[in-house]
Amino acid sequence: MAISHTLEEYLEAIWRLQEKATPVKTGELAQQLRVTPGAVTNTLSHLEKHKLIARTPYRGLKLTEKGRVRALSVIRKHRLAERLLTEVLHMDWSHVHDAACELEHAMTDEMIGPLEKTLKEPATCPHGNPIPDESGRIREEKSEPLSHFKPKDKAVLVKITDEKSDMLRYLASLGLMPGTIVEVQEKAPFDGPIIVKVMGASYALGRNVASLMQARRL
Amino acid sequence: MTIALAGNPNVGKSTLFNRLTGLQVVTANYPGKTVELNCGVLKHKGKTIGIIDLPGTYGLDPTSDDQWVARRAILEERPEVVVAVLDASNLQRNLYQTLQLVELELPVVIALNLIDHAETLGIRTDFQKLSKMLGAPVLPIVATKGQGIKELVEQLTSGATITSARGITAFDINLKQAIHRMEEAIKNDIEQKPFGLSPRALAVRLLENDSEFTRLLGQQEHGPRIIELSQEIGKSIESEYHEQASLVIARQRHELAKQLTEAAQILAGRTPVLSQKMMHYTVSPYTGIPLALSVIAGIFAFMLSAGGFLGDATTFLWTSFASPTIRFAVTTVVGTALLSKVLLWGFDAGIFGALSVGVPYVLTFYLILSLLEDSGYLSSVAYLADTVMHRVGLHGGAIIPMIMGFGCNVPAIMGTRVLTTRRERILACTLITLTPCSARTAVIMAAVGFFAGWQYAVAIFAIDLAIMGVVGWSLNRLIPGRTSGMVMEMFTFRLPKISAILKRTWFRFKSFMLLALPIIMIGSFALGALYETGYLQMLLAPVNPIMLALLGLPAIASICLILGVLRKELTLQLLIALAAMQYGPSASNLLLFMSPLQLFVFGLVVTLYFPCVATMTVLARELGRKNTLAIMMSTIALAMLTGAVAYRALPALGILR
Q1: Is residue A90 less than 8 Å (CB to CB) from chain B?
Q2: Residue B648: what pLDDT?
Q3: Of A120, A140, A160, which marks where a domain is finished?
Q4: A193–B486: do the CB atoms touch at under 8 Å?
Q5: Exposed, middle or buried by CB within 10 Å (0-12, 13-18, 19+), for B269?
Q6: Is the ipTM of this complex over 0.85?
Q7: Same domain, yes or no: A150 and A206
Q8: Chain-wide mean pLDDT for chain A?
Q9: What is the predicted pLDDT for the residue at B474?
Q10: CATH label of the domain that carries residue A51
Q11: What is the pLDDT of residue A1?
């Protein structure tokens, strides 16, 4: 079954949001895709009809197993495309995301195997996110967004999923980078910010920043 | 001789700056950048030394305005010595920036501050060891108490040449090789090194993918080739370390900072229990929110009482001494003709206007702000406000300038510098121009509250706040981009130093007055000339019927609204003055010639339309003329629209007539 670019984009976006929290709310999805909530509804019905997502009224939606496999195949193409752009075409890694968004839809399944071989089967995309294998399995790292942790929890940062290099470097100058151990000190209710302690200093991180940081509980 | 002070935020850098310099402080600005540099002079044994206080930053990458300014100032001014002010209680993180300074091959002297605080935490530092390892002098100081300052000054003025610490490097063999390869290529290919940096310093910056140096080199012959090479080497670093080259470099700097800290410090590992408890209570909703509300209430109470007192005092002193003197001087020189009247608009009313905003509101506000900044409490408020502020596309850091807006929009707009993206600053500034400042509050209370009833005054505030919510919500959706995340250090609580606060308040007040005074005077001359010659009335003649039809306001109201751009409380004063001319002295009872409905509409329009000369000036400086004009026009339209709706809807609902 061939599905349209739009549907693929949607699956990919839902999968990304699911990494942070399930179920995914329609509003969040619309924001992620930069469209109006009204426009989302129509496409979601499509996805539901194809049994790619399951919706619960008033709670949100999540990918079905079929949808997950499909989404991971798109993610796989996206991340391989990013590798292609950085490795073969020598584009700057901080600029390849948008181009990869276009490429991923044009890549056929037949292209993927040889491409992966050519790129020497990379484990991650240039931003450090794991590339799913052909059966849709993703290397399991028992990490969760830093925003899920509670006060007094200690965790080690595994990766920072923000793809903007300025933010990454700013955080790095504070010592907030993969491998750093943080201790959650405070957490505000209603999706508010959290305070983490890193090397003797405390930082308040907005929830949107904290949810970009994947961390493993210690 | 020039010395620059560098360091992380809140390490006592400004305190040290104040210790070293006198009151002669000049602020410098890079065009288009919002962060200012304070420059002062240190006189010691006949020597005059210029001191630049760089903005407090965690690093020197051009990823934000403050870091860009800090780095650019060092590179352009080429100070003989950079004093790295470090917090002894958090040495490891502080050393990160120092290592960047060393990489730029700058002569560094380390002023290890807050050693008293570190000692209470059981942290002791072996200065000699640290100095030896870093290859730079290390001097312990306590800037707040003035300890070690003499020794520091001696060191800086001794004439002993301080060389950059070349011996130390953060990088492992692989990176060193990569840097060396780049270095050789740069040495051979690049004629003009940007800012005269050494090939090696440039090599590190390029491998870090530094946007500015990449751009600067790109403009040179062979530059693109070097950039290509650096990207190629960057790739190979990336495949070896499985992360971006810039992160590998940052990681190794942190690693060295850690090694240095572990070697030079004994850490007893005592946690600052009290400070942590205080932070906990100030940020936990049940205790933090009531506390924040009482602090805000306290600020308003202080601004109303102290500001009110200062306002009365200014008015009294001005009307009894300055004003008669100026009047006498002007009339003596140019007589009592038209010219003298126009001059008096500027010299008398204009200066008074600037002072009557500046002294009671701007001065008191800066005093409170400096106090809160130094206490460390501001970050708690920002943390608490983050969730709510996200609804209007801002983050917690924006709450402070927003609160300031209720006192006076001018310092509030200047305060939006804490926000990092342009989008956030436009959002915050727009909301601030809609915030009822103390002048507008005065009009609402006196014109509406007194004559139409307090519930209508409250209604105007409610309408205004609702409009601010709607405007913020919709702008957040209209302006492309998204809210940047908040990353903010939670500073430990400290007892503020009164002298430092007073000094900073004075600098800020002075820079506000220098900015606002000329503009208000020019505006006053211009409007005064138009008014005294009767042109303003002529120009307004066609507008008046529109105002009457649209808002139901009498002819004199529109002239008040126009002249109100000088100061918002002028609208009311003029309304009374002009009414007295037209209807006799009893017209100070506004109800004689305006209905409660008209007063309500008048109050509403005064609250919503933004133009106020002082605000316009700072806004244009912060956001540019185009944005200022756009904000101005939309608030005028908004005021007219809301006024027109209120004028029609309220009587229809049978509420006011």
Answers
A1: yes
A2: 92
A3: A140
A4: yes
A5: exposed
A6: no
A7: yes
A8: 83
A9: 92
A10: 1.10.10.10
A11: 45
DSSP state of B11: S
- Low-confidence residues of chain B, pLDDT below 50? none
- Does residue A10 lie in a domain region? yes
Q: Kindly report the CA angle at B584 between B578 and B589, in degrees rounded to 5?
A: 75
Rounded Cα distance, A210 and A196, in Å: 10
Q: Which residues pair with A156 in a beta bridge?
A: A181, A216
Cut 0.80: pTM above it: no
Asked if residue A96 belongs to a domain, the reply is yes
Phi and psi of B3, rounded to 5°?
A: -125, 140
Residue A161, domain member (yes or no): yes
Instruction: Say whether residue B230 is in contact with chain A using an 8 A CB cutoff.
Output: no
Q: Quick one: A35 and A15 in the same domain?
A: yes
Within this chain, do residues A160 and A186 fall inside the same structural domain, yes or no?
yes
Contact residues, chain A, for B383 at CB < 8 Å:
186, 188, 192-193, 195, 204
Q: Is the same domain home to A114 and A175?
A: no
- What is the rounded distance in angstroms from the CA atom of residue A41 to the CA atom of residue B554? 52
Minimum Cα–Cα distance from B98: chain A residue: A173
Does A70 reside within a domain?
A: no
CA distance A190 to chain B (A): 7
Question: CA of A94 to nearest chain B CA: how many angstroms apart?
Answer: 10
Name the residue with tokens 């590179």. Answer: B75
Residues of B in contact with A185 (CB under 8 A): 276, 279-280
To probe the interface with B, which of A199, A205, A211, A214 has the most B CB atoms within 10 Å? Answer: A199
Q: Report pLDDT digits (tens) over B567-597.
A: 787 787 777 777 776 776 666 677 878 888 9
Q: Which of B92, B243, B396 shows the shortest C-beta gap to A178?
A: B243
Which chain B residues are Cβ-neighbours of A202 within 8 angstroms?
Answer: 279, 489-490
Domain that holds residue A88: 75-140
pLDDT at A140: 59
Question: Are the Cβ atoms of B395 and A189 closer than 8 angstroms?
Answer: no
* Pair B487, A205: CB distance under 8 Å: yes
A163 and A207 together in one domain: yes
Identity of the residue in B231, B379, B395 whose CB atom sits nearest the CB atom of A206: B395
Same domain, A212 and A149: yes
Answer yes or no: do A126 and A86 share one domain.
yes
Could you give the number of structural domains in chain A?
3
Domain boundary among A119, A140, A161: A140
Same domain, A86 and A105: yes
Residue (of A179, A165, A125) closest to B208 by Cα position: A165
Residue B6 C-alpha, separation from nearest chain A C-alpha, in angstroms = 15
Q: Least CA distance to A122: which residue of chain B? A: B239
- Tokens 């990458």 label which residue? B61
- Which residues of chain A does B250 touch, with a Cβ-Cβ cutoff of 8 Å? 169, 172-173, 177
Residue among A11, A197, A48, A111 at smallest CA distance from B271: A197
- Contact between A90 and B250 using a beta-carbon 8 Å cutoff: no
Nearest-CA neighbor of B122 among B267, B275, B274? B267
Domain with residue A136: its CATH number is 1.10.60.10
